[in-house]
Structure formats: structure tokens, C-alpha cells
Predict the 3D structure of the following.
Amino acid sequence: MSTFRAQVLRAPCAAGERPLQAGELDDVAPGPGGVAIDVLACGVCRTDLQLCEGDLAAQRLPIIPGHQIVGTVAALGRDVTGVEVGQRVGVAWIASTCGRCRFCRSGRENLCESATFTGWHRDGGFAERAVADAGFVFPLPDDLDATAAAPLLCGGAIGLRALRVSGIRPGGRLGLYGFGASATCAIQIARHWECEVFVCTRSAGERERAVRLGAAWAGGYDETPPVPLDAAVTFAPVGSVVLDALRALDRGGVVAINAIHLDRVPEFSYDDLWWERQLRSVANVTRADVAELIGLAAEIPIRTEIATYPLADANESLMDLADGRISGAAVLTIARA
């Protein structure tokens, strides 16, 4: 039987303690409705870091993390249509839904109680090979480089959804709190919509990058944007940042919290929420979000700085992400003999 290399999480621990173990696993054939994918690249997301460090509870162990997969279809399961062997595709966070519940039937499959997620419930893309449901893979343009495409599948798609949840309108005043891979995509979408963007983030380098990408102002978390905001999106997994964003809102403004895991939000006064200000969470993505983002990425076009790592250095990518050494997005690239 043929095998493939993978980076496997067996027991969460700090990134510096190297939570991923290299392994040689037996190939798994796709089941009915599934596809096998030869992985070309896989983005490394903060959610992967939170899973590997134990901040996000694992749904099963061992597990192969990674939910921003770009690859080539290698094999088809029974009854697969609309996908061909040799086709370049992406696999995102959302891996399956029931398709029958009230959320699925109303276009909100991201809220499906039976949903499964790539790299959390199902093995992901920190590997040479991955298996996915054919209905949850996304055709990619041939001219979109694999390493450039990978961060779009989560950071880009969830950034787009967060903007939608925030209710920001074209030309509005938008705050972004944190400036990693997802915010890097979000600012480019917001500027495409002619929004005025204000960025709060921890490092001078991130603030400089925000200005290069069109921010009207960039400051630290201890600073307040110079004008009241119509909407804000928080990307940092820090509860106090949510209050910073809330207090920067104009009347009727919305904070969208873009985090699957967030530490404790400090106590705050109702006066901070008064005047119809709102706090909303952003939960997962739909397939429509991912498909829309892929189209927008070509139209705008969306670009992000990328730090690449070979599969064998997956732990190094987690350490660099944890220590704030990555400008933009981290991507594992898969080389084959």
C-alpha cells in the first residue's frame, strides 16, 4: 500500500514544545461522494495554532491540522460529478453539513449543528494527501498560484464574512483590530468598497503594512481612531480588544468578533453599548462565502505577503505565528520526490 507524509497532532502543547509529529500514513481512498487530493500548499491559520496549543479543544486525536488546502484531484469516489481528476481545487474550513436543518435550508450552513470542519473533525492539509467531500471543494483558476490561493480559503473567506456581519457599507468608516492574514485580506476588500479604514494593531511593522494597503490611520491598541467608526472587526483573540473596538463605535455601530476562541472580555458599562451599538460573533463560513471570495480575489486583486515553509517545518511555522514573526500569512508547501 502506498503512503504519504503528514504532520500529526497527538497531544496539544505549546508551539515551542513542537506539538506536531512527522508521520508516514497509509493512503486512504475516497469514499462515495469524496475526492482524494494531492496537496500542493496549505495555509497555517491561528486556529491551527490554537488547536495545537490546546486553546481550542480538539474534536478528535490524533488529527492532521490544516484547513486552507490547495491541491490537485488525484482520485474520485463513487457518484462524484462536477470534479475531474487533475483539476486544481481548494478545501476550506467547512467540510460537511447536514443540508436538511433550518440553518442549511436558509443559507446559513455555517451554523449547522451537524457540520464538520477540516483539520478539526476531519484530517486536514498538513500532509501530502487529503480527502474531502466533492461538494465542499472549490475549483481554482489556473493562473492563481497555490501558495497565494491557500490563505484566501480561510483568512480571506472569514474576513469577507466578518465584513458582512459588521454591516459595513461602501464608503463607511471601518475599524480593524489586529492585522494578520485575515485582516490583510479584509482591508483590501474594504478599500475596494471605498471604505475609510482605521487599523489598531500591536506592532509598528503591521501598522506600516496597513498604511501601505490603504489604511487612513494606524495605531496601537492603546490608541483610539480619530473618528467614530460605523463598524469594526476584531481579529485579535484578546477580550480587551473587543471593548476597545466597542468604545470606538459611533451610535448604531457594530463590532464583529472574528474569533473561534477568545479570552475573557472584561466587564463593561452598559453605557458603552447604549445608542444601539451591537456586538456580534462571526462563526465559520459558508461555501458561498468561499466562492465569492475566490471571485473577489481575482477582481480586486487580493494580495498578501506570504512566508513559506516546507511540510517538515510545520512546527516552526506555528512557533513563528505564536511569536508574531510572520508578516501576512504562513503557508506550508509540499514537495514530492
The first strand starts at residue 3 and ends at 9. The chain has ten helices and 17 strands. Residues 156-281 form a domain with the Rossmann fold fold (CATH 3.40.50.720).
